[in-house]
Amino acid sequence: VGTNMYTLDTNIELDYHDAASVNTRCQGICDQWDNLGTLTQKRRDALERVEKLWETIDQLYLEFAKRAAPFNNWMDGAMEDLQDMFIVHSIEEIQSLITAHDQYKATLPEADKERIAIMGIQNEITKIAQTYGIKLVGVNPYTVLSPQDITNKWEAVKQLVPLRDQMLQEEVARQQANERLRRSFAAQANIIGPWIQTKMEEIGHVSVDITGSLEEQMNNLKQYEQNIINYKSNIDKQEGDHQLIQEALIFDNKHTNYTMEHVRVGWEQLLTTIARTINEVENQILTRDAKGISQEQLNEFRASFNHFDRKRNGMMDPDDFRACLISMGYDLGEVEFARIMTLVDPNNTGVVTFQAFIDFMTRETAETDTAEQVMASFKILASDKPYITVEELRRELPLEQAEYCISRMTKYIGPEVAPGALDYISFSSALYGESDL
C-alpha cells in the first residue's frame, strides 16, 4: 500500500494528466486503511473485553467451587445427623438430643446466608453472560456440583428438620411415660419391700415371744397370716406395673433399689416363714398336750434357746447348742454330743431348729408315765371307752389338733365298735415313742 501511495504521489508531482482520478483513488485507499485500523482496534478492544469477562467468570466459577464444596459436605453431614437413629433410656438423654438439635437449628439461618451467597455467585455468572451475550457451554470446570444440586439438597435438609423434631417429641412422650412407670413401680416397691421385711421381723418376734401362751402366739400368727393374704393385691398390682415396664423395655430404675425379683423372693420367703412358724407352734401345742409339758417348761426352753440363738435367726449352730446344753447341766463328751446331734440334726444341716430343740428337751424331761397320761386323757374324752370316735375328737379338741389325731390314729378293732372308732391307745404309745408324730 505504501509503495502504491508513493507511486501515486510521484505521478501527481510530475503533473500526470489523470492526476485528479489518481488523487481520488489515493484518498479512497487512505480512508479504507484508516477504517481498517479503526476496525482492528475495535476488534482488539472487544476481544480484550471478552477476555476480561471470561477471566471474571472463571474467578466466579472458582469462588463457587471453593464455597459450594464445604457447604455441600456440611449438608451431607446434616442430613446424616437428621436421619440418625437413636436409642435413649431416660428423659435426660432425650433432652440432651433435643438440645443438640436446637443448637443445630440455630445454625440454619447462617447456613442459609451461605447458600444465598453461593447461589449469588452463580447468578452473577448468569447475569454477566446474559448482559454481554456470552454463551456458557459445559459445566463449572472446578467442581461437579451444580447450583441445582445445592438447591435440591438444601430443600431435603429443610424437610428433614421438622421430621427430626417430630421424632424427638415422640421420644420425649415415650420417655415421660416410661418415667411415670418407673415412679409408679418405685412408689409401690419402696413400700412393699420394707413391709415384707417388717413382717418377717414381727413374725420372728412372735415366734420367740415367751410372755404369752402358745395359743396366743397362734392367734397372733393367724392374724399375721390373714394380713399377709389381704396384702396380696398389692403384689398383684406390682406385677402389673412390672409387666408394663417389661413391655416398655425399661431396664433400670433409679428411684428404687427393689426389683420385681427382690419383691417376689421376699414375698415367697414371707409366705414360707409364716407357714413354717404356724406349723412349728402347732407342733409345740401338740407336743405340749401330748407329752404333758407345762407352759412354764416351754417358756423355759424358749428362753434358753433364745439366749443361745446369737444370730437371732431361729436356729443354733452346733457350738451354740453345746453351750446351751452345758448351761443346763449336761456333761458332754465328744461322743455323747455327736449322738445328740444325730437326734436334733439328722440331715446334717449344721443347725438346730427350735422344734428339734423342743423335741429333744421333751424327750429328756418327760416322765415315764407320759404315754399313760395321754391315754388317760383320751379315755376321759371317750367316756371310758377303749376307743374314741371322730365326732368326739372334733367336739372335744381344737380343729387342728382333732384333724391331726384323726389323720394318725388307726381304726379300732374290737366287739361292739361304733362307726368311725379310732384306737387312741396305740396312737398314744406311738406318739410318746416317735417325735415325728
Automatic annotation (TrEMBL):
Which CDD domains does the record match to this protein? EFh, SPEC
Concerning InterPro entries, the annotation shows:
EF-hand-dom_pair (IPR011992), EF-hand_Ca_insen (IPR014837), EF_hand_dom (IPR002048), Spectrin/alpha-actinin (IPR018159), Spectrin_repeat (IPR002017)
Give an example GO molecular function.
Answer: actin binding
List the residue ranges forming a coiled coil, or say none.
214-241
Q: Which Pfam families match?
A: EF-hand_7, EFhand_Ca_insen, Spectrin
One GO term describing the cellular component = actin cytoskeleton
| Keywords from the named record | Actin-binding, Calcium, Coiled coil, Metal-binding, Repeat
SUPFAM superfamilies given in the database record: EF-hand, Spectrin repeat
Enumerate the spans annotated as EF-hand domain.
296-331, 332-367
What the entry lists under PANTHER family is as follows:
SPECTRIN/FILAMIN RELATED CYTOSKELETAL PROTEIN (PTHR11915)
This one is known as Alpha-actinin-3-like
Protein source organism = Sinocyclocheilus rhinocerous
Record lineage:
Eukaryota, Metazoa, Chordata, Craniata, Vertebrata
